[in-house]
């Protein structure tokens, strides 16, 4: 989860300020947002939430071949894909009993997301979930060395569509490194690059215009290989300057497609993808053809842990929250 933000669910309307009508007078009232949109805003606003929150609304799947559907959301709207959200949903679907699973082995959870159908492979041992790998929609590369003039100089950007559209840039090319202490500079660089790519042909999805437009910017460092495994550290700046705390699942798919197009990784070989806080996903190209053509199929693995069950309340007369 490709576009700056996926449109709200069907039937949802987002309130917007309208200009006064010609000749003066009061502007017409803004349309009322849908119930889902109101809940999204309630959850991402303080004091119930915060600008870094991410979540999803469970919805019926497109057909009986999938177990569930989901609309991913964040502070600024909706996303067309989310790898770490898919990993979490796979673990939840099995642990909650929604999808039957063996005590030892692998359960398949099929999930409809706005960009297509993905499958979470939930590994089990001794009746416990030990990890989840999701198979993504095909990932296609539309540019490998697209020059972009930034305030930090001209950089070469790779663009890939992997359920969402990601622009990849080495942090070193911007005079930066993927470190928590540099997050303000990294966020500023990511937002600038995303804005500069708006309208570029490279960020237009080849078949579905609803998936066009940069969703996230992957700023990455090369790390020493671990036991021969290619290793990188990244921070993904998405939407309007949000930071992905995970290594970003769909962003990892995008990186795999770019690395395959560059000839740096072959089918079956592993990428160790580390986040800015040190969490790790592993990814592989497992199928498909030309990453610069019809795209490659990727699998990305990680872990997910339930932290709680929460009840949010909006009492009569209370405000739905604020942002700071």
Rg over CA atoms, rounded to whole Å, is 20 Å
- Biggest sheet character: 15 strands, mixed
N-to-C span: 25 Å
Q: In one word, what is the shape?
A: globular
The share of residues in helices is 10-25%
Number of strands: 15
Q: Structural class, from secondary structure content? A: alpha+beta
Sequence stretches where pLDDT stays below 50 over 5 or more residues: 1-24
Order of helices and strands: HEEEHEEEEEEHEEEHEEE
> How much of the sequence is in beta strands?
25-35%
Mean pLDDT score? 90
- Total helical segments: 4
Can you offer a commentary on this structure?
The chain is α+β, with helices and mostly antiparallel strands and 324 residues long. The chain has a 15-stranded mixed sheet that branches. Strand 14 and strand 15 form a beta hairpin. Helix 2 packs across helix 4. The longest helix is centred in the middle third of the chain and has 14 residues. It is globular, with a radius of gyration of 20 Å. The two termini are 25 Å apart.
Features of the shown structure:
15% helix; 35% strand; 4 helices; 15 strands; alpha+beta
């Amino acid at each position: 989860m490709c576009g700056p933000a996926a449109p709200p669910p069907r039937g949802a309307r987002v309130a917007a300020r309208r200009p006064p009508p010609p000749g003066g007078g009061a502007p017409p009232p803004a349309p009322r947002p849908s119930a889902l949109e109101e809940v999204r805003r309630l959850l991402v606003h303080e004091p119930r939430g915060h600008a870094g929150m991410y979540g999803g609304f469970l919805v019926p799947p497109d057909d009986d071949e999938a177990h569930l559907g989901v609309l991913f959301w964040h502070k600024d709207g909706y996303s067309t894909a989310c790898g770490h959200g898919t990993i979490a949903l796979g673990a939840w679907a099995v642990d909650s009993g929604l999808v039957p699973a063996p005590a030892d082995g692998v359960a398949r959870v099929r999930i409809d997301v706005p960009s297509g159908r993905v499958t979470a492979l939930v590994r089990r041992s001794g009746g416990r979930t030990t990890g989840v790998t999701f198979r993504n929609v095909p990932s296609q590369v539309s540019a490998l060395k697209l020059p972009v003039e930034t305030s930090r100089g001209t950089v070469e950007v790779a663009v890939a569509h992997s359920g969402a559209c990601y622009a990849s840039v080495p942090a070193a090319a911007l005079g930066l490194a993927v470190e928590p202490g540099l997050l303000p500079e990294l966020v500023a660089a990511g937002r600038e690059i995303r804005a500069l790519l708006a309208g570029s042909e490279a960020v237009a999805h080849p078949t579905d215009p609803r998936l066009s437009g940069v969703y996230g910017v992957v700023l990455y460092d090369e790390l020493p290989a671990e036991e021969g495994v290619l290793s990188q550290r990244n921070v993904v700046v998405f939407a309007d300057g949000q930071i992905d705390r995970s290594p970003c699942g769909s962003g990892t798919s995008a990186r795999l497609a770019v690395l395959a197009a560059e000839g740096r990784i072959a089918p079956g070989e592993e990428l160790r993808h580390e986040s800015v806080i040190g969490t790790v996903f592993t990814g592989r190209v497992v199928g498909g053809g030309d990453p610069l053509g019809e795209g490659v199929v990727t699998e990305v693995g990680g872990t997910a842990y339930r932290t709680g069950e929460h009840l949010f309340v909006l009492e009569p007369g209370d405000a739905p929250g604020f942002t700071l």
